[in-house]
Amino acid sequence: MYARFAVFAAVMSLAAFYFGWEAYAEDRLLDKAPTTSATLVEAVDNRWDEDYLELDVHLPGGATVRVQTARFEAHPAKGEAMQVQYAWRGEELLARQAGIRPDRDQWIWAALGAGMAVAAVVVLRARRRADRQHSPTSRTDGDTP
Fold first, then answer.
1. For 26-35, how does the pLDDT look when each residue is reduced to its tens digit (9 = 90+)?
2. Residue 77 maps to a domain
3. Contact 20/103 with Cβ under 8 angstroms?
């Protein structure tokens, strides 16, 4: 039981650190990124997750790329234009509304990851202590089983 929880906590810790790194890398790419216009295709109110916008981003070369972003403060009406910062990450185009500060999700994910790592260590140490107290070789009264 304890070992399963410790493994779960360790895996969740790694996942949290990964998501934190992804948020940090995205913020670094979009910091001081160029801006361009985008047309709002749809604003999605997601009940279970973050709301997001579907945008057609008009790149300087004339190409238009459809992206989804949850990085916005206020959005215009459907079909209207807005300014976005954009950056390429491999084949993927990242975008956020121009003028907003980067969020600090990476710190929340890092704190969650550290908390889960500490929980895994505490659980494993508690199990080790419990195993020592109940093992026949840990008796100090001289009796043998």
1. 888 888 889 9
2. yes
3. no
